[in-house]
Amino acid sequence: MSALVVLLSPPVLSWKNDLRTGSPARWLRRLVLLGLGAAFWIGTYWTLKRVLAYFQTVYELGPALAYQLLLIILLTFLSMLLFSNLITSLSTFFLARDLDLVRSAPIPPSSFFYARLITTTVNSSWMVLFFSFPIFAAYGAVFRGGGLFYLWTLLVLPLFLIIPAALGVLITHLLVYWLPARRIRDILFFIGLFAFIVLYFLFRFSQPERLVEPETFGHFLEFLTAMETPSSPFLPSSWSAEIFASVLFARPVNRWFFFALLSSYALFLPLAASWVSAAVYISGWSKAQEARQGRHHSDLLDRIIHWLTHPFPQITKAIMTKDIKSFLRDATQWSQLFLLLALVAVYLYNFKVLPLDRSPIPSATLRTVVSFTNVALAGFVLSAVAMRFAFPAVSLEGRAFWILQTSPIALKSLLWSKFWLNLIPLLVLGELLVFFSNTLLRVPSWMMTLSLITVFFMTFGITAIGVGVGALYPKFHYDHVAEIPTSFGGAICMIFSVAFIGATVMIEAWPVYLLAMEGLNPGSTSAGSWVLAPSLAGVALLTVLAVVVPIKLGLSGLEEMPD
Amino acid sequence: MIQLENLSKYYGKLAAVESLNLEIQPGEIFGFLGPNGAGKTTTIRVMMGILKPSSGRATLGGYDVVREPEKAKAITGFVPDRAFIYEKLSGREFLKFVGSLHRMDSPRLERRIAHLLEHFELWEWRDELVEGYSHGMKQRLVLSASLLHEPRILIIDEPMVGIDPRGAKMLKDLFLSLAKSGTTVFLSTHSVGVAEEICQRVGIIHRGRLIASGSMAELYRMARIEEGGLESAFLELTRDGTAS
Lengths: 563, 244
Known about the structure:
The complex is a heterodimer. Chain A has 20 helices and no strands. By secondary structure, chain A is mainly alpha-helical. The longest helix of chain A has 34 residues. Chain A is globular and about 75 Å long. Chain B is of the alpha/beta class. Chain B contains 9 helices and 10 strands. Chain B has a 6-stranded mixed beta sheet with strand order 6-7-8-3-9-10, with helices on both faces. In chain B, strands 2-1-4-5 form a 4-stranded antiparallel beta sheet. Chain B starts with a strand and ends in a 7-residue tail after the last helix. In chain B, a hairpin with a 2-residue loop joins strand 9 and strand 10. In chain B, 49% of the residues are buried. Chain B has 2 domains: 166 residues, Rossmann fold (3-Layer(aba) Sandwich); 68 residues, no CATH class. The interface between A and B is medium-sized, with 33 and 37 residues.
């Protein structure tokens, strides 16, 4: 057996064994995930097919629009792949736990390099590949690509995946040669997040909704004509798009030229990366094993944390202090706050630019309706944030969980400390979101009060669902904190949160409708603010359930989990 | 001080520990020996309340670990075989955290932290993040944490793994002095030499069952050997198994 096959056998065998040995619960979990995946595929396929079919109705512009969209999609995939390969190759080449074993075995360095390159490519690309299938299927179906299109897809995709993988591996080798690997992971994560936020801002502030306004359509046409050619002709995504476009839209280009271009890069880059690896790997890996040093003691931070946590009992305070310090010292955790800030800024901006005054419905009524929708939207934002912070809270104890298990504390203290630590910032965020968006909407005072009270209740429920379900499905063995919410438990948490928000909104919908109608047509319903009281009581009751049930479930899960 | 009564733990149909009976007196150093997979770590995890027993009971200082886990843990210090700790805390912060979990008051906690960090030669590293510590330093830090609240019982799983000869000597002296002051030390180990050197009594667990327990002389008698020490007795008693 060649060394390459031997080196690739552990992940393949692990995967095979994992599939072969599964409890019924595990199979159920797989079925749920499969169902979610299928739903995602069908949803993407259906949506894109409708969009592309709509494009086709735009005389002459249809293929151009579809081509531009394909370019954007492939460019997005390429950047995601490059970034994902950078992160993955850091682990596979420099930080993996089996490196000592593998590198001490008498295997040729080139076999090691290509085995790790293949592992990196597979680990980084399967998600993009998964996302891409319904997209290609939709393009093929709408533009009648036929067998030829799918054949080209099969030829182009492997090359399209290898290029960013080899480039990512090459860049990682160079970075690790100059900087310690553990620091690079933080830096890369930070850069990736920052790039995402910038793109997000650029996209939102370019006001894409203006494209559908008739007065700007002439301008859009000019823009589109200018964009008939790819803006980045030197990128593999553009070369791939040219090949697909030549098959789908009969674009007059030589697809064989672009295929040769893709192939030559897909062959050359792995080779170049292997040369770089041969030259710098050992010194880079050696550096990767050196730990970071430095003193970490700040009286000011201690005083601030003491002030923040002093109302809580000693155990809760100790757990909160530990969590706050760990959070602040882990770049992969605190940098997610930037994502949060970007989310809030764009959220509020959306309300600022809403063209409510141009609607045929009276402005005040519309503002009430939008504001009520805003309560649900704020709930979704809060649950998304809770997924990032509250859901992983218990899992973040990681393999050090034994310390709490063997300490003389009740595990419920752990859950409640996680709950309070997450609740307070979420509460501030939720209330600010609703207050400022309602202020921008200039809603009536009863709506402002209702929104603030509802979000207050909702935050308790959302936080408890995050912490409780996170404790019920903990993931103590993880490589990166961002992978915790992507687990099965994460999906369950999201479903519970959305159901809770939906139920809350439904309880309040009827009185809000009555009050909105009263505002639109005074005297029609004779409803006063008092109609809100029973609903608020109902929401309060639901919140109590949403707090108590997940925390209890999480607690029993933690207590039962050890087997 | 430590009492195990008919303690069993099953993983599905597999009996990891079966009908274990043990009684260990205050101030005693008890060695818990067994081949790989014999059930040593499972027993310890049950004793520390990390695993629930399938049947039987374990009491520490008279407290049932299932019914009164907090009281049992409050008088016990524990060092696992592989000690993962919070990497983003400094050594001192980690000890402060553990001390707070034991509800220690601040002046006493500060005093104990300073004493233990000095004793285990970690004082210079007190403000470094744990992620920068070597394996041996982490072991010593976890040991410090287990002794912070001056426990009446110390349960320790494979204490000598990754410890250099100087550290090993320090540990052996520590166990002897703890026992002298009345602390019960429950030592699970592969190292027959360590057990022979410092334990007053030894229990040998094999395939989940306690097959022998007693002083060195009693074990030699049970194994029907006259020379070769505890190692020969151990090999003889576990002969039909897969002793490492």
